[in-house]
Write a structure and sequence with these properties.
This protein is mostly beta strands and about 130 residues long. It has a five-stranded antiparallel beta sheet, with no helix packed on it. The protein has a five-stranded antiparallel beta sheet with strand order 2-12-9-8-7, with no helix packed on it. Strands 10-11 form a two-stranded antiparallel ribbon. The radius of gyration is 13 Å and the shape is globular.
């Protein structure tokens, strides 16, 4: 499946630090990837299969409507994946999920400011170092 869009569904507090760093950011809620066939995959931190892992669903993790919906497709961290066939690979017992395109990857992990096992979705363009 080819990646069409990257959408962030955010709490109000997520807006504060969204653009502080161009190579990574952290949110408390979730994102979804939309593919060229219309399929959506949602990603967030979760507690299955292990606590504070990165999970995926075909619907929202949070039942409440988000405070903000932001299209991140054109952001530096994501733009090189748009139009690519995407593969997903878990690393470190579901603590890190690699979203891999043809020439670039984005990494989703459950950490906050370098501390692992957090209820935060960390999004980065380099593989986080898992040291616990």
């Amino acid at each position: 499946m080819k990646l069409k869009r990257v959408i962030y569904e955010l709490y109000e507090i997520d807006l504060v630090s969204l653009h502080d760093q161009s190579e990574w950011h952290e949110i408390d809620r979730e994102i979804f990837l939309e593919f060229d066939n219309g399929e959506k995959m949602y990603f967030s931190w979760c507690n299955e299969p292990v606590q504070f892992s990165i999970g995926s669903k075909n619907h929202r993790f949070n039942e409440n409507q988000p405070d903000h919906i932001v299209d991140a497709s054109g952001w530096d961290i994501w733009k090189d994946l748009i139009g690519d066939n995407i593969q997903f690979t878990y690393k470190e017992t579901h603590q890190i999920l690699e979203v891999k395109g043809q020439s670039k990857s984005v990494y989703l992990s459950s950490q906050e400011k370098g501390s692992w096992y957090a209820d935060v979705l960390h999004i980065s363009d380099t593989l986080p170092v898992f040291n616990c």
